[in-house]
Here is the input.
Amino acid sequence: MVLIRIRGELGRIGDRVLNSSYPTSFIPNITQIIGIINAIIGKKVNNYSFSEIRKLLKELEEKVKVRAIYIKKMPKVIDFNILRINHDATKNKNQLTTTIEYQYLYNFEYIIDLEFLDKELENIFVTNLQTRNIKFTPVL
Here is the structure.
């Protein structure tokens, strides 16, 4: 069993896009956590194709189980409105921009309980964290 702490002052946990808004989730989903684990382990995808990424995530999901996600500090939500410029051939200026609402979390902290079924992978993960030899920046 490995417990990791994820905390931050400002961040977003991506959720599905709904009608020109980008809501945030309060809890990271399993795929995002597996992505963070991969960033720490440092396994690379050659051409960033969706099929390779899916294959990598599936492989890691078979070797690492997320047993629990604890909210140690309940995050607060801040709303931001961003004006997005549409790049299309429309001549109507009202249709050239769209206001999009983003939600960000601030002052959050989670404890993630992981179970590594592959002990070699667990050793790589723990060693990379302890020595700060992280291959990619782990970002939610």
